[in-house]
């Protein structure tokens, strides 16, 4: 089915995901670690559409969650509790309580203080909380500063020395069971060496824990693998997996990989229709019915999603910005790109929009969020309806 008919059938703006590609990407991760005990815990934050999650669940995926909402959604999608982990720098007590009650695989902890809170809540529940500690290896992941997480200046994880104290403490507690060690140095990573440097540092630490007699079973390598938004050279999955495994000689932990973007990013496109064009003496603008509230990445990270006007790929092009209707100059989907002359109704396709597209969308300017469609063996299926206007104010209470 072509994008024109999808846009006609489901209207725009619209997200379309190719589930065949999704399957291929997910199985690629599984294959890369084949032969070793491993679990791919898909990072829900990249795209948490329920149908997409059930589809991944059917392929054997686990889930990396960063809120109790994500934990509940993963469970709802049929991901077994023993494949769900809960990470994140600010877990509330009620979230910890619920996660322990649901008996998920483990919680990735971000501080000593958090560990004490988890211990207290586990004690209240009469449970032993399975935990893992996120180590901050202080390594520059060489990515956009907003999505770099492995340096001491970032809020994530704890220094190795602190992590060590945490494991020693956990060993003495009747309400904690340290089952894993974790790191994640950033997202959209296109260089393997910082990942392997981090892995080596954490692997050495992991081995020192084993030497202390701690039975830590899971080695959680986070996510972060980049995709080719602008023709970047991406890290081959095989090299990634082999590189990680080479840091783990003489030990056999179960590998947990929290991939998000690399599984879902290149499966999705964002379709938006041209409303009209305007130009001034300096600039040409194509105004479309999608906006930064639908696809936030260009505004937030100056990310470039390759785009084209469907059916006009071979026409002469001139520079322009592709902008939405939101009342901010930061509202653009593409800046200084070459596009043919467009008319109202033309369809603009933005590629690589499967990850951090819909999941970061908002209702800013009281705009309804787009619909989402899955292509399964080429057949379209609506997996999330476009929001209705009424739903936008349904939870608001009248003052008078
Ligand atoms: N694990 C942890 C602890 C994370 O913080 C993240 C992403 C992931 C796994 C998944 O990373 P991935 O494989 O998707 O790179 N909104 C940004 C990306 C933020 C990533 C946050 N953490 C963007 O649109 O580029």
From N to C, what is the helix and strand string?
A: HEHEHEHEHEHEHEHEHEHEEHEEEEEEH
The overall number of domains is: 2
* Distance linking N and C termini: 50 Å
Look at the structure and give the CATH class of the largest domain. Answer: Alpha Beta
List keywords for this structure.
400 residues; alpha/beta; Lyase, Ornithine Decarboxylase, Chain A, domain 1; TIM Barrel; 2 domains; nine-stranded mixed beta sheet; eight-stranded parallel β-barrel; 12 helices; 17 strands; binds ligand LLP
Task: Briefly characterize the structure.
The chain has 400 residues and is an alpha/beta fold. The chain has helices spanning 3-10, 19-32, 50-58, 68-76, 93-102, 112-125, 160-172, 192-211, 237-246, 261-264, 297-301, 389-393; strands at residues 14-18, 38-43, 62-65, 84-86, 106-109, 129-134, 176-182, 218-220, 254-257, 268-279, 284-288, 307-309, 317-323, 332-340, 347-350, 371-376, 379-384.
Notes on the structure:
By secondary structure, this protein is an alpha/beta fold. It folds into 2 domains: 3-14 and 266-386, Lyase, Ornithine Decarboxylase, Chain A, domain 1 (Beta Barrel); 19-264, TIM Barrel (Alpha-Beta Barrel), CATH 3.20.20. 30% of the residues lie in helices and 24% in strands. The chain contains 12 helices and 17 strands. It has helices at residues 3-10, 19-32, 50-58, 68-76, 93-102, 112-125, 160-172, 192-211, 237-246, 261-264, 297-301, 389-393, and strands at 14-18, 38-43, 62-65, 84-86, 106-109, 129-134, 176-182, 218-220, 254-257, 268-279, 284-288, 307-309, 317-323, 332-340, 347-350, 371-376, 379-384. The strands form 2 sheets. Strands 1, 10, 11, 12, 13, 14, 15, 16 and 17 form a 9-stranded mixed sheet that branches. Helix 8 runs parallel beside helix 9. The chain is globular.
